[in-house]
Write a structure and sequence with these properties.
With 246 residues, this protein is α+β, with helices and mostly antiparallel strands. The chain has five helices and twelve strands. The strands form three sheets. Strands 1-9-5-12-4-2-3 form a seven-stranded antiparallel beta sheet. A three-stranded antiparallel beta sheet has the order 8-7-10, with no helix packed on it. Strands 6-11 form a two-stranded antiparallel ribbon.
């Protein structure tokens, strides 16, 4: 049965139930990041103010902005290599709404894409996931998202509850302002149990074993008369290479 245990080590939680939730205040310690990492990473967050619109939403919405870049993490040397810019692709088996075609997004801004705090986060997560499922390399896709309420409602996961076709998924909340909703929901892929919770504190992070759970986030609505938004960083880790058309 899925449950939230802030005191459980993330690797142990992933092995036990395919889900780990890292509270913001213990994120750096649990991922063995430098003590000043939250401050250094926080200096990158203004880039979320400059995300371009997502031009591929098939529900006709205009509520999502995003950027996307890809990396390869080689575990033996702990090396991170930014890859030539490529399309994001998923099969329709995993994304019935937006799967089956190449989606090109603007890349992560150059200064952020090679920032030490940015790379350290992905490396530490890669090392953690290798404890759960050993792999020589991780093929990582990084997605910077902003969902807003300009149209009255914003949908973080318009495809609904889903898997991503990878090994592990990371969802990190970076901030939410002037919105209500946005409840995170995680369900066993092959069982009856699930969890519902809301991430409110910036840097709260959810780790998911994509083979064992499905996930979604409920729509957001404005809380008050001003435009609201919810910012996240989503990282996916896959050992078998980047997903691409056959």
């Amino acid at each position: 049965m899925l449950h939230l245990d802030p005191h459980s080590l993330p690797a142990q939680a992933l092995i036990a139930q395919g889900l780990a939730v890292l509270p913001a205040q213990s994120l750096a310690a649990q991922l063995q990041l430098p003590a000043d990492w939250p401050l250094d990473f926080g200096q990158l967050l203004p880039a979320w103010e400059r995300l371009p619109p997502d031009a591929h939403l098939r529900d006709g919405g205009r509520y999502r902005r995003r950027r996307h870049s890809c990396y390869v993490h080689t575990l033996s040397s702990d090396a991170m290599a930014l890859q030539p810019h490529r399309a994001h692709w998923q099969p329709t088996d995993y994304n019935a709404l937006h799967g089956g075609f190449e989606r090109w997004f603007e890349p992560i801004e150059a200064d952020m894409a090679q920032a030490p705090a940015w790379l350290a986060l992905m490396q530490s997560l890669g090392r953690l996931f290798a404890k759960v499922r050993p792999a020589p390399q991780w093929f990582i896709e990084a997605h910077a998202f902003r969902i807003d309420t300009a149209g009255g409602v914003g949908r973080p996961t318009p495809e609904g509850a889903h898997r991503d076709g990878v090994d592990f998924v990371v969802v990190m909340l970076l901030g939410r302002q002037g919105v209500k909703g946005g409840e995170s929901r995680v369900f066993e892929a092959d069982g009856p149990h699930g969890l519902r919770f809301e991430m409110n504190e910036p840097l709260t992070t959810v780790l998911l074993d994509d083979a064992r759970v499905v996930h979604e986030t409920t729509p957001i609505q404005p809380q008050g008369s001003d435009l609201g938004h919810r910012d996240t960083l989503v990282l996916t880790y896959r050992a078998a290479g980047f997903q691409a058309p056959a």
